Amino acid sequence: MCATHKQLFAHTCLKLDNLLVFWISPSKKGPLQHVCLFVQTETHLPIASGKGLHFPEQNRLTKVFFVPLLVVWAVLHTPGESLSAPYMRDDSGLTSVPSDIPTDTTEIWLLRNSITRIREDDFAGMVQCKSLGLSNNGITDIEDGAFQDMIQLQSMWLDQNKLTSLPSKNPGSIKWMRLNNNQITEIKSENFAGMWGCKELYLYENEITHIEDGSFSDMHVLEYLTLRRNNLTSVPRDLPTTLQLLTLQSNFLTQVRDRDFAGLRVCRWLYLQDNEISDIENEAFRDLVSLERLKLNDNRLTTLQTGLFDDLAQLNELWIYNNPMTTLDPTLFSTQNEYLILLMSDWDSQDSWMCQTLCWLKHKEDAGEISFDRKGDEYDPKCADAE
Length: 387
Hints:
This protein is mostly beta strands. The protein has two helices and 29 strands. β26 (340-343), α2 and β27 form a beta-alpha-beta unit.
C-alpha cells in the first residue's frame, strides 16, 4: 500500500494500533502544490475551495476518520490541479450560451442576459453540473434534449423568461425546478417524463390552460407543486401521492370532483382560493387525512355539504370568507381533532352571515375548540341579522 503515485508523495508509513495510517501535509500554507505522506498526530486539516485545498491553522486529527478522505484526494489529484469553480456570467449582455464553459463546471449562472434560445448542444458533455441558472433572459425556445447530458443536475432556474412550451428529455436527477413567470400554455405528458427525483416544481404565473393526464406520473417524490395564477378550469388528474403542498389559487376552477385529490394522504396545505368554484362534491377531500390548512375563500360557494370535512381530522385552519354563504351546518366540524381556526370574514369582505343560525359556533368558541382569529387579527363573522 506504500507506493509512489506519479511522484505525488513519499512512501513513509507506519502501523499504529494495527491500523495503517497515512497523513498528508503540504510543503507550506496555501493551495496544495507539493504533497508528502508521513505519520504524526498533528497536521493541517484541508479546506476545499474553488481554487484547490487550503490548510488553515494546525488541528489535531484522529487517526481514523480523515484518513480515507485525504488519501483519496491525493491519489486522484495531481500537483497544481484546482477544484472546478462556478461559471458566472450574470448581467453580461449575452445573446447565446457561451461556448467556453468548461465541461467539468459544477455550477453555471447566466442570469439576466438576453439569451433567446437554448440549443441541443449548448450544454453537451457537462456531466458534473449540479446547478443551472437561466432566469430572467428572453428565452422563447429550448430544444428537446438540451439538458440530457447534465446527469447530475439538481437545481434549474428557468423562471422569468418567455417560454410558451417546455422541453423534454430532462435529467431525472433534478430535485428543484423553477418555470414560473413564463408564458407556458400547456403541459404535455412527455415534458416531465423520467424526472423521478424532482421534489419541488414551480409553475405559477404562466398561462396554462391544459395539463395532459399523467404529466406528473414519473414524479414519485414530488412534494411541492405550485400552479397558482394560471388559466386552469379543472384540477389536474393523476397528481403525485407524495404532494405536501398544492397551490391552485387564482385560476378558473368551477368544480372540485370526488377523485381530484385521490391518494394525497400526506398533503398538508391545499390552496383553492380565488377561483370560481361553486360546487365541491361530498367526497372530494376524503383522502386528505393529513391536511392542516385549506383555503376556499373568494369563490362562489353557497353551501358546504354535510360530511365534507369528516376525514380531515388534522385540519387546523380553514378559510371560507368571501363566498355567498349565509350559514353553516352544525355537524360540519364534528370530527376535527385539532383546534380549528375558522376564517369567515376578512377586513374587506362582504360576507352576510345569519348569525342566529350560528350559535353552535359561538359555543365551540367558548369551549376553546374554534377561533375566528389568526395571528392576532380579529375576523369575527360579520352578521347580517340582528343579534
